[in-house]
Amino acid sequence: MHDSTSSPDYTTLIGTLRTSFGAGRSRPISWRIQQLSAIDHLVGQHEREITDALHADVGKPFLESLGAELTFLRSEAKYAIRRLRLWTRKRKVNSPVALQPAKSYIQPEPLGLVLIIGPWNYPFQLILSPLLGAIAAGNCAIVKPSELAPATSSLLAQLIGQYLDTSCIRVVEGGIAETTQLLQQRFDHIFYTGNGTVGRIILRAAAENLTPVTLELGGKSPCIIDASADLDVTARRITWGKFFNAGQTCVAPDYLLVHSSVHDALVARIKATIQQFYGADPKESPDYARIVNLRHHRRLCALLGSGDVAVGGEADEENLYLAPTLLTHVPADSAVMAEEIFGPILPVLSISSIDEAIHFVKAREKPLALYVFSKDEAVQRRVIHSTSSGGVAVNHVWLHLAVPGLPFGGVGQSGMGAYHGRWTFETFSHRKAVLVKSTKVDPTLFYPPYTELKARWIRRLL
Ligand code: NAD
Questions:
Q1: Which ligand 1 atom is at minimum distance from the Cα of 197?
Q2: What stretches of 332-420 adopt beta strand conformation (E)?
Q3: 206 alpha carbon to ligand 1 midpoint, in Å?
Q4: Looking at the structure, do residues 366 and 302 belong to the same domain, yes or no?
Q5: I need a labelling partner for 290 at 20 to 30 A (CA). Which of 42, 99, 379, 428 fits?
Q6: What are 18-44's pLDDT values in tens digits?
Q7: Can you say whether residue 165 is alpha, beta or left, with left for phi > 0 and alpha for psi between -120 and 50 degrees?
Q8: Of the residues 2, 60, 73, 120, which should be mutated to test ligand 1's pocket, given the most ligand atoms within 8 Å of the CB?
Q9: What's the helix, strand, coil split of the chain in %, to 5?
Q10: Count of domains observed in the chain
């Protein structure tokens, strides 16, 4: 990492990578497959080191790292390898009658040199998962892991240097100073995951060079629970999805909107489930993560005053521990309802109807994810069709992001662009339009002199 007082110069690095791209080094399908396999091997061969680094950075339980970072990445890598030839193929489209004879097709092509900037909460996966798509699409890339997960950042630098072709793919470690310098360079795409405040900085910097940007941001993802919901299953799924990684997940349910008729029963069941998952004292549980740093710990503790603490609330600053916490009687205008919580605090708000829940959601920014628990399909449909969010899961939380066919991304303030599966390849590709005409026939229809007869034909054909 660079000293924050020095000003790193990335011109030479960018020049090297641009030369590689210009020479076509990252274009051959064989190169792409080899690099994608190398990521698969890198993850498979260093499972323990990676999960240890994630534990050192965020206290992640082994199984949470294994599922949400390592296995997820390996299956995305294998998925891309299997489909790469299909994705890179030209895609024929019909040419209109007036342009016949002709062939038209879309040729996916790499963008060039791309920049990927990751956050600290899933610091391994959120760097390598976009990188898979950048490679699959034939680009060169610089990745910049989060400085707030230093063990993972330095492991990524080491492993990428060891496994990948460094004439095309490099890691830059560092924080604000380094990223600011990087952003002064010209890239062909910037892929940023993190908070919206920095998202705006990225977008402003990208505008200088008209660089396209993907912003994977966050927000307050609501979870609506209808009176018909299966409360036992609902309690388990919400407890798991909220307290996974101690709530530091961009798609974690941020708050619950629970029908008043089942409010107390659901709170009781979530309370029981927390105990079932993490024992009487979650602080002792090996399955419960820690808050990333003191700043976030203090920020979260300050939110405990919004409403009544119905479950949890215990905090240990030295240990960066904050108990899985439920807040009830939470005023809609309280601090905990103002910003994305991004920690293990779950406000539970009572609603009297699904319409009230829909109205509540629509009165706020479009979230990254929205969840509805209901056995009633009409209610499920109504929620899906009358709200807007990056994605929706019905009767579960955030598992939609594990479906490679579904684009994962936000809308409005929760982000722009999407990835996962084929969508990552598309994000890092330009879809070039190609029209191929023969010179054997050359109708004079479009050429001067323009006559009434030609006008009639144009009206008929176009
Ligand atoms: P963070 O603090 O690690 O920042 C993210 C990246 O931005 C880091 O690499 C950091 O170095 C860089 N950065 C920070 N300040 C900068 C500046 N002034 N100029 C340039 N770069 C700067 O992570 P974070 O933002 O706290 O991450 C949490 C947020 O990310 C939450 O809002 C969460 O919802 C969101 N998130 C979204 C997704 C998603 O897929 N949509 C995934 C994970 C997290």
A1: 25
A2: 345-351, 369-373, 391-394, 415-416
A3: 16
A4: yes
A5: 42
A6: 999 999 999 999 999 999 999 999 999
A7: beta
A8: 120
A9: 45, 20, 35
A10: 2
